[in-house]
Each structure stands twice: as structure tokens, then as C-alpha cells.
Amino acid sequence: MIRRQILKGAAGLALTALGAAPAFAQQVVKVGVILPMTGPFASTGRQVEAGARLWMAQNGDTVAGKKIEIIVRDDTGSADQTKRIATEMVVNDKVAVIAGFGLTPLALSVGPVATQAKIPAVIMAAGTTTIVSSSPYYARTSFTLSQNTVPMAQWAAKNGIKTVVTLVSDYGPGLDAEKAFKAEFESKGGKVLDTLRSPVMNPEFAPFLQKAKDLKPEALFMVVPSGQGASLMKQVNERELAKAGIRIIGTGDMTDDDQLKGMGDALIGVVTSHNYSAAHDSPENKAYVAGFLKANNNLRPNFMSVGGYDGMALIYKALEKTKGDADGTKLIDAMKGVAWTSPRGPMSIDATTRDITQNVYIREVKKVDGQLWNVEFETMPNVKGDVK
Ligand code: PHB
User: Lower CB density within 10 Å: C or N end of the chain?
Assistant: First the structure.
């Protein structure tokens, strides 16, 4: 007790001696970024962190008179760790915002922390629709699976596909995609022959792919989380689904730009719908991709990276609106309704839901200049995150 008082006194003296120190302390706004940097979803962590750092490299580390500092920590993909780290960041590091969250369960684990601490939790990666409504302090700069799926179902129905089997990862985002696909596709006259679900951890796709093949649909619609696309597509090729006359369609999670280059020419012609392609044709994206490749040893940015980049953009824009006031409730309020042009195209944060509204593009895998790319050919403008 006495020791603590002495220490407090000493700290007070030290601050007084420094004069400007207490004011200086408030001049730094800390953003705690929690991501899977190791384990099976490490590519998500690497991409989101690189995106966030690129925003800061391009826009400086000062906004509205405040110095921005990001603290990145690895939750290894475990929700218990995400929550523990978030709590430590609030209590010990005094962060003004928490952000990141590479998978739905990780994002969901921090809701109570954000609500209690009254600080924004910016979802830069996860995609289950209901996450944002579970705390008034969530905002999202990633995507939702229903948002990315509905345009695919519409495209399939419009392009003469009559029967589909769906195969999704058996957890929040996969189940959202399954539900959205079936509802939209069947409302347009199509038929979903079966809804298959594979475990999210250590997935073994072969038995599900065989089942899908045996059902002889015209197309197989698939959704797996970022990081699993390459192994899924390898097994799709091994089962020769294309030769059996089954078209491969899905969300862009499976033709992930992080892995696409190495997936092989069998991917050419695969049609997906998604919110971001590294091949998106705009000046903003050309600058983004060039900057990203340069800063990351030629790693191609994927859709997770723009979640990190735009997550930092959102935090900067909110601080500009509050004129540097980092009070959590003021910041989350300032995030509502913000709109800007991202490397992905126009985007905004819905003023009511705090979820992301953005364009969704239909793309086809093509070989351009010797590399595979998701080449966009149709745009569904301003799709809401909670699209039904
Ligand atoms: C999620 O867990 O919400 C998630 C992760 C990776 C994706 C999509 C959704 O590619």
C-alpha cells in the first residue's frame, strides 16, 4: 500500500517534471489489433495487418492532432485468447479501439468487452451477419456472406443453371451463405438438391465432394474460409467434377487472391461473387495493389487485406469527425454513415446497422499476363450487409 503510494507519487512527480506529459499521453490513440498470426488462419492475420499498416504508411500516423499507434497481437485463432487479449488491451494498454478478428467466433468473443468498455470493435475480417447486432460498439469493414452470396444465386439462375448442390463450412458464415443461396436461387426457380456441410477445422472435403458428384447437379456452390481455398480446389480437381459436367461456383473466399496464383490452370473459368478482387480496375486499386506488393515482398493483397486497410480508414475518418476526441461512444457514433471510395470500390457504414454496404462483383478466373486473376465482369451496386 505504502509502496504503491510512493510509486504513485513518483509517477506524479515524473509527469509534473515533464510538464507536457499528461497532455502528451492523451495525444496518442492506441488501436489494439487482434488477429490469427499463427495457426491455420495465419494468412488472414498477415493480410489484415499488412492492409492496416499500408493505410498508415500512405496516410501518416497522425490524424486530427492525434498520433495513432497500432498494437498487433496474435490470438492463434482461439476465441478465448481473443477475448483475453482484448481485455488486457483495454485495461493495461488503454486502447481506444479494438479491431481485427479473423473468424466469426473470434469476433463474437469481444462483443461483451467492447460493450462494457464502451469502445468500438472494428470487424476487419469476419463475415457472419448477426455479429454487428450483438453489441452497439461493433462496426464492420469486411463483408458478410449473405451479401456476397445473393448476387451469385441471382447470376446462376439468370445464366440457365437449374440445379445446385451447396457445400459450406459448418459454422456461422457458411450457414449464412447456404441459407442465402437456397432462398434466392429457389425464389428464381432453381432447385438446391442438397445442402452439405464440412467441419471448419481440419476439413476433409473428399467425402462431401464425392456426395456432390453423385447428386449430379449442374453446379456446385462452395464457401470455405480464407486459407482453405487451395486445398478445397485441389480436391475438386482430383475428383474431376468439371469433367463430370458440374460447374464450380461460389463466393470469392475459395479463389482467394492470397493463394490463387498457385492454384493451377484447372481454375480457369470458375465463377465467383465477391466484394474484392486484386484485379479490380480502378485507380484506387491500382495504387493499392502496387503499394501492397512493394511493402510485402510481392504478396498479392486479398479481400482480408482491404478489411484491414478500410478498418484503419474508418478509424481515421471517425477521429476526423470527432476532431480527435477518442471517447468510444463518440467514435462509434462518428463511424455511422461514413462513405468513401476504397480499393474495392464505393463503400459505406450503414448508419443504423453499423454494417458495411458495398458493391459485389461477379468474377471469372482468367489467366492474364501469365498469372491467374479474378476478373470482374458484372457489378451489383451497394449491397447491404444484412441483405436477406
Ligand atoms: C468468418 O469466420 O467469419 C470468415 C472467415 C473467413 C472467410 C469468411 C468468413 O473467408
Answer: N
